[in-house]
Every structure is written in structure tokens, then in C-alpha cells.
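Record FA complementation group I, 1285 aa.
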Amino acid sequence: MKAEMDKIVSLSDEENIPELQKYLSTLTDDQVCNKCIVCACCLGSPPSSTAGANRRLLLYQHCIPLCESGDLQTEVAADIIGLLMLETHTLSGPSLATLGSLFVDAIKVGKMSSGKSLELFPTVLTALAACEALSYGKGELSGEEYKKQLINSLCSSRWDPQCVIHLTTMFRDVPLSSEELQFVVEKVLRMFNKLDLQEIPPLVYQLLLLSAKGCKKQVLDGIVGYFKEQDTRQEEEQKHGDSLDLEVQSIPQDQLRHVEGTAILHIVFAIRLDHELAREFLKGFKVMYNITSYADLCPFSVALLLSVARIQRYEEQVFELLKGAIIKSFKDEQLQQGSKLLQDLLPGHCSVAQMILDTVQNSVFGWDHVTQGLVQLGFFLMDAFGPKPGPFGKTTEGSLAVARTPTQQACKLGGQVLLQGFKMHEPIRGEILEQVLNRLVTKTASPVSHFLDLFSDIVVSAPMILLESSSKVTETFDHLSYLPLATVQGLLKAVQPLLKVSMSLKDALILVLRKAMFSSQLDGRKSAVTGFLLLLKNFKVLGSLASSQCSQAISSSQIQVDVHSRYNSAANEAFCLEILSSLRRCLSQQADVRLMLYEGFFDVLRRNSQLASSIMQTLLSQLKRYYEPEQDLLPPVKLEPCITAHGDQVYLQEPLAHLLSCTVHCLMWLQNTRQSANPNGDDSDGDEEEEEGYRSDLHAILESMTRRMIKCELEDFELDKSAEFSMGSSVGVKNNIYAVLVMGVYEVLMEYNFIKANYSKRCFEEIIELFSRYHKLSEILKEKSGKGRVPSHKTPRSLFSMGIISTSITVLFRDNTQSREEALSVLRSNGEFVRYILSVVVQKIQQLDETGHTDGPDGQNADKTFRFLCDMTSVLMWRYTNIPSVVEEGGKKEKRSSLSQLCLEGLLRIFTTCQQRYPDKMAQLLSTMGWTSSEKAVHFVMNYFYIRQFQRALFTQLSGGEEDFNSKEAQLLISILSVLSRQLKPSSQQVPFPDVCVCVWGFSLPLEDSAFCKGLLSLLFNLHVLYKSPVGLLLELCQDIHSELGDIDQDVEVEKQSNFAIVNMKTASTAALLVLSQVDRVLDEVDWLIARKKSQTASDKLGCEATQTAGRQDPVEKAVTLQLGTLLTALSELVQTALLLGTCTVTLLRELTRTYTILTTLVKYYIQVCASQHGSLPARFEKLVKLSGSHLTPQCYSFITYAQVLGMAKLLRETKAIPNLIFSIEQYEKYLITLSKKSKVNLMQYMKLSTSRDFRINAATLDAALQEQDDTTETQEPKQKKRKQ
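=>
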């Protein structure tokens, strides 16, 4: 063999080609294929001769498997393949076809696993495509067609998973038509599930390079679809891990996430280089965004979007898309939750919010390229959907417990993304914290409660992590005196856990607060008071009494630090006393600053009882400034020092009533706590004498004030009926301030005497005496303020605490203890006092609803406040159900509310407040009301039971006749039923939900009360829509309205209908407006369903079976057609009704316009369906078109004429209602013509020729006008002649 090789090499070196050819022809096939003689074989096998061509083909046929076998060194194999590639163009057409088939057959049997020889295949295919004609079977094919057949055969065969990446790489070098490229891409995407997970990223990379030829959307959709499928499997395995077949090999979650992260990096890299790929990706997401179900969206695609957002040119576009998808998802979810029809048609809802939260969870697996996008998205959502400033920059206080609206939910989602990101990713913590704190400092004109909530959650969940960035918090402290008070309070409350473990943070805060105490801005000084009070509450002096109320301080499970192990008792006490001395300076500042101090002292004392002596001494000395010590002098308080004047303006300087209230609450709490801690009085503590001293002094002052305030007449305060109370003069302002102070003092003294009374008749009599003085002054204020053009009197906020109010109504209505009967009769016999207590109950609950807290002790304590609500609910319910309003004296003659109405108003406010502030505790609230059994009742069953109780009360009201009907009380009952009905679950089998509607339905009695009719029908609609579509109900109501108001054609007699007796002449217009608002809601649902079907048809033209299949129709299409059919019938009744001119008529025209617009949308949908499918239109749709043409359109034109004749032209011109309606009708008919052509069905046969609106002659009107003109001429002629003479 060596001799043969030497001979061939020498002949080759001499370039003696004829001798080389002659020698090669003498060698066997095996000798020719030796790797060392390939080059020489090519030289010695001229393609022009048959033998040379065959030898060359034989060389290729043997060299390709040899290179693929792995027996050769890599460099040698590469050299051989390179040489063969250079010589491929010399092969004949049949040889190329043979080689192509060789490659395809080798791939089919899995002999191309190494992929070394696949580099030659693109060259073969390219050369093959250049051939003019090749024999194929019994005929001939062009080279291009033959290449297509090879590729089709290759893509239809089975591929070895090991060669998928090599084949994908190979196809990059093959010229492919769009059809061939689609074959290849589809085949590669199908192979994804057969590859090992670790092979996916390189395949994704090669596929993205291949996408440069085209099929970009298909490639991206396939990659995203694969990872979505893997995520779904992971989720199913986590949910049903025990029940799944153990033989199924599951992919480890961490491996999957790492592979997903790598794939995202590859895609983003490809997008940076190919902007066309980015456009296709974003375009695909926009289409997905338009589909209501978001079926193709998944955590992987969200992560991919966030990574693409790092490219600056796409950042804004990506976040706008995500923002739109999130808010649309929440809106769709809200729409589905409020409609039983939509729930039945489309039971599942894909939550975009959950996908984003899943993306946050997945990003922990090294997705650093996603985390920055998550941070930006979180702040983008919070900035875009956070609370907005109200009128004049004011905002409602307190944040709601539950995010209810889509914007609130989107804002909450942004906070969740940032909070989870802060916990999981160390690199972004500094940025999140810095941006949150920057917004707290800079957004002074906008509400920042959502950022405060986020900051508080960060502190509670990761306090030790936050301490690493304490310098940023310290920098924020420097701006405290310039921030709004609400922001300061929220910020200081949030950092409270950190102050306990960070001495430097606490010292920095104290330094800032001391500076703020001397700020020129009032808010700065108030901020200082807030901060100092917070410190006093949370740095307990060792030895302070432990009480259940002391455990309310915010703490974290991650902070297990004993304060006293770090700061000793003496240091804490000195620290607290130093703060107290700073706070004493506030007692010489403005009333607002003093007020904050008085409201905070009670909580400080309760949590730090060792400071009692300092606090009580401070309060005592302050109180003595305004107390008249001479027992014989009246009044016992000095009011003049309580006000100050600046020019002509008079201001309150000392909120005396609040000072007195704070003193009373601190004194009584301290006394009760000492007694419970030392019931036998054996304690001989050194502080006891001092404590006894100020306690006795204060009791003496309060007793003296009670006695002397009872003796006082209004003249003693210069506040009799002759006094001026006008707010336009300084004297009137001063008298108003005096009156409010005196009323507050009376209230505080009433509470003091009630607490210490211990059911003493004498004390209760003193309370009534105090109340009579209070009531007299209150009546004078009301009388005086009502004389002006605009009543200027606003009832001052009561100083009664929630605890005393709860106790008061309990003893007034439910205390049956025999020994207390005589004493309680003193209070119960005074009707004005009972009414006053109930009005205070309503006022306190209203304050809680609006601000989230109440004044006085425990007003900030959510748990205690809720317990008070439970107690009051039980008492108010008992009072209302056990004492009928008919037995109350003067209940109907007087204009003011009866006691029963006050009870109902209180119950309504409690239920509303509980739903807003304590949504998870509604069941607990209901369980405290009467009638509960010993067993724990199920929430919704109890709720249904209470609904029944209020329905009975409403039925009693309605069955008493119109004379006994109390409209206010009935409306309150309706409102309560509306609130409680929101807790019902229509899907629950335990509650016969339709019965609730039937009960309300049955109450429809002939009452001519528009307000009551509005409330009752609103309740009926709200209940009905939760278990059934309301279109049938709307039709019946429209028939009643038409029957009551008559027809627009006076010659037509309308058939008498009486589906609802409450619809009569006086209430019909109100009912019509409610019906139209409900029509709008139904149209919303129908429009949403049509949009969903349109987008599905557009995204998947090969989707579901043809809608036109005989006897079958898509359930969504069927529901849309039925809804619109019933709605058209109802509107045809209304449009024939002689409605009163004004809002009702304009609203009807707008709803008609919208109805035709939605009909046009439905017609466009069927045009789209006919374009992609072939068949007949559904019979129901044809009936709908017929109904619109025969029953509605002609009536619309008649109604337009009716409205114009009755003189509404100006109003209708301003609203453009008529032109809009006519345009929508004409658009509807225009697209019906198009659909008729597409479907070969003449739909226009049902349409009548439209009336021309720009020129119309009414013959009857013309004749009447001409006749009138003739008569006028005859009568006026003599007069004209007379004037001429």
C-alpha cells in the first residue's frame, strides 16, 4: 500500500496528469478511498468522463460516512469536507441527486449524529437547485423542485435528537423558499420535546439565527410555547405530586429556570441585532393583548418582555403594553365576577397579575437580566395607578384594606412586585429603597400612602436587611420638617421596629425632631410632636405595667431584641423624661400642636405607665391655667385665655375640651389599672403618695367643674340667644369658638360622670343635667346658623370615646339588671339624650369609615375598634327589631329621624365600614348580632338569614299602606340589603340565591316615591345579575313604563301592563333611567364577548368548527344573539314611549346609538367569519337582523320626529344625539349590505328605506300652518289698512 501511495504522490507532484489517470484506473475501490489520496483522486477523476464522474461520486459516498464515523482526526475530517465542498459544483445532476438522497437516508437512520459531514449538505443542495432537469421516477423535475422534495422528505422523517442542532445549523446555509423554511422551522419546533433540557439553549440560538431568513413570529411563538408547556407541567406536578405517575421523569425546577434564563438571554441578544425580530415579538404581544383570555401569555413571555425592556428603544413600548395588559386583565376579571352570564360562558380567567408574580418568583434562579425590568415595572404601576389628589389637593385619609377597583389592584400589584424583589435580590435592594424614599420626599403634592405601605412592608419583612441601608433612611429624616404630616406619621410608624435595634438611627431621628420642634412651619412642629410621641410609646421604662393594651406596638418576627438588654432602665427613663420636657414646650404653641399632644398622651401612658407621674403633673398644671379655683365663681373655666387674636382674626389657642378629655381618660385608665394590679391596696411604693396627690386634685377639680357647670347658665358664658354667632364677624367667630369649647367640656364631664357613676342614680341625674345644658346650647347654634342664606353650622365632632358610646347604648337598650333599673330609667326617660347618643354612634362610625380611625382612646387600635363595632351592631339590631318605629312618639310628625331610623343608619354605616376596613371579619361581625345559635353558623347562611330579617322589616313598611310608609326608613333598609347582598355567593348550594331576588321582587307595591323606587330597582338589578342575565327583567319593566306613560302616537292605545306595581306615573321616569343604565351594562358585556370572538377568529383562522354548521352554534355567539334580541325588543318598547323631555330622552338616544354600534360590530364579526369559513349564517342572527329592521329602526325615526316636534331641538343639537343615532343606523345598514354579498343571504330585505333627515315635509303640519296663516291674514288686514290711514 505504501508503494501505491508513493507512486500517486510522485505523479501528483510532477503534475503528470495523463499518467496519474492511467494509474488510478488500475486501482480497486478500497484503494481509491484512502484519506491520503482523496486530493489526488479528484485531480485524476475528470468530471467530463463517465468513469471520472463515477469515481468522484464513489469518493463522496465513501468519504461522507468515513468523516461521520469519528475514526478520523477532527482536522483531517474538516480538510476532507472542505475539499469535497470545493469540488461539489463539478458533480453532475444525477450524482448530486444521489448525494442528496444519501444525506437524507443517513439522517433518517440516525447516522449523522456527529454532524461533521453535514457542512457538505448545503453545498450539495445549492448545487442541486442550480440543475435544470433531473429524472424523478418516470418523469423529470427541475433542480429547485428536486431540492424541495428532498427537504420535504427530510422534514417528514424521524430525526435523531442528537443531530437536531447540527441540522438546524446546516439549514442556515441552505437557500430556502418561505414554504421550505416553514417546513424546517415546524420540524425543529416539534423536536423540542424530544431533546434533553440542556440542549434547548443552543438549539434556540441556532433557531434564532435561522429566523434571519424569515418565519420570525413562528420561531418566537414556538420557543415561548415550549417553555409555557414546561411551566404548566411543573405547576401540575407541584399541585398533584402524589397522584402523578412516578415513572414520568420530571424536570427539576432549578434546571428549567436556568435554561429559561439562558434562552431569554439568547432571544434578547438576537433582538438587539435584528430589530425586525423585535417588531414581530412586540406585534405578537399586541395581538395577544387584544385577546381577552390572554391564553398565550405566561411567566416566560413576561420575563422576556421585561428583558427586552432593557433595550432603550423598546423600554417605553414594553411597559405601556404590560400596563395595558394588566389593567385590562383586572377590568375583565371585574366584569366577569359581576355577571353570571359571563361566568357560565367563560368560566376560566387567566390572571396577568399572577403571571407577573410568578415571574418574580422565577427570577431568583439567576435571572439578573429580568430583575431590573421588574423594578421598573413595579414603580411604573405604582406611579401610574396610585391614589390621585382630590379637590384642592386633599386626599381621603387612611388606606383601604382591600384593593377593589382595577387601578387599586394594579397599584397593589406594583407594590407586591417590589416587595418580593427586595426580599429575593440583593443587588436591587438599594435601588428600590432609594426610589421609595425619594418618592416619599418629592411627592408632597400627591398621596404617598401606597409607598408608605410598601416601605412598612419592607421594614416588617426584612428589617435586618434594611439596616444595611440605614444611611438612606437617615437622609430621609433630614426632610421630615418639610413633609406633609400624614407622610411623616406613616414614615415614623414604618421605621419604628428599626429604632429599637439601631442606636444610630434613633439618635439621628431625635436630632431631626429637636430641630423640627423650633421649625417656623406649623407642620414641622406637628411632625416633631408625632415623632416624640412615637418614641415615648415604644421605648418602655422598665417597670411599666403590663396590660393587654400594651401589646399593640408594631414588631416583627425577625426582630427578637430585648430593648432592656441593650439600653438599661435608667437610660430609657432619662431618655423619655428628656423627650417629655421637650414636649412641654408644645403647650405654649398653636392649638393644632397642643391637640396632637393631648391625643397622643393617652397612648403613651398606656404603653409606658412609669411615665404617669410626669404626664399627669403636666396635664394638671396645664388644666389649672384654665380652671377657676374659687368654688363660688361661675363658670368654673376661663375661656378668654383659650383664644387669641391677630388683627381682626380670632383663633383658638387652647383646645380646652381636648385637654380635659385627655386628663379624664388618663386619670380613669391609671386608676383602673392600679386597682386591678393592686386590689387590696397593700402596695407601699414610694410613688404612691405622689400619685394619690395628683389623683385627688384632679378628682376634686372634675367634681367641682361638674357641680358648677350644672349651675351655669348660658349667660355666664355670654352665649345666650341674644349672642351673635355669625362667622362673618370677629365677635361671632369668638362666640362660636366659646360654644364649641363649652359643649366639649359638657361632653367630657358627662363621660367622666358616666365612668365613675357605677350605676348611681345621682350621677345619672347629673349627666342629664349636663346634657340639658349641652342640648340647649346646641339648639341655639343650630337656630342661629340656619338664619343665613347658607347654613354655616356644622355639628362639632363629639368628644365621646368609642368605648363609652358602645357602653352607653348597651345600658340604654339591653341592660335588664333589676338593681340598675331605677338608675337607668333616668337616662332612658330622656328621649333627647337617647337620640343624642344614637347620633354620636352614627357620627363615630362615619368618621371610622372615612378616615380609618376615631378620636379618643383606642381610636387607632383596629382590634378594639372592631370589638366596639360588634357590640354596637348587636345592640342596634336588637333595638330596631324589638321596638317597632310605630310606637315611637312623634316619629312621623317631626321632620327629624326617628330612633329606629338612627339605628338603621348606624347599622348601614357599620356594615359599609366593615366591608371597607375589615373585609375578612364580616362573618365575625354578623355572628355577634342577635338570633345566633350556640353552634358556629356558616357565614353565607347567616348573611342570608339577616337579609331575610331586613326584608321582613321592609315588607312591614310596605304593607302598612301609603299613610304609614316611611320613605327614609325604607330607603335605609334597601341600602342595608344592598350591602349585605354583596356577601352572598350565587354559586353556593346552601343558599337559595334566587329567593333573595324573589323576595325583593314581591315587595313592588304601588308607591309613588321616586327615591324608594330607585333604591328598590337598583337592588333588584344588582341581585338579579349575579344569577341570571337581566334582559328579561328589562323587557318587563319597559313594557310597564310604556303602559304608564303612553305612546308617542296619541291615537295608539297601549295595552295595560303591570309586571311591577311600583312603576307608575310618578316613578316611571326614574325607572326608565335605571333601565337604561342597566341596558348600558348589558351592552358592555355583549361588546366584550364580541370583541373576544373577533380576536380569537383573527388569531386562529383555522380555529373552531364553522359557526354555520347546521343545528349548532357557538355558545358565545348564541348568547350574544339572544341578549341583543331581547334588548332590541325592550328598547322598541321604550322608543315608542312618550318619555318626558330632558335627560331621559337624551340617554335613550345614546343607548340606541350604542346598540346600533354593537350590532355593526357583530355584523363585522360575521363578515370576518365568512371571509375565513364558508357556510350559511346562523338562523338566530338572521332573526336578529329582521327584528332590528322591523321593530326598532322605524320606531327610532318616529321617536326622533316626536322629540323634535316637542321642542327639544336645542338640547338635542347640543348633545348631537340625533346625528349620532342616524349615523350609527346607516353604518349598520352599510355593513349589512357587505355581509349580504359575502354570505349570499339577502339581509337587506328586512330593512326599510331610511327617512331622509336633511329634508322632510310633513303634510299634516304644512296644511295646518297654511290654514293658520290664512286665518291670520284675514283678521289682520283691516288693522293694517287703519294703520296706513
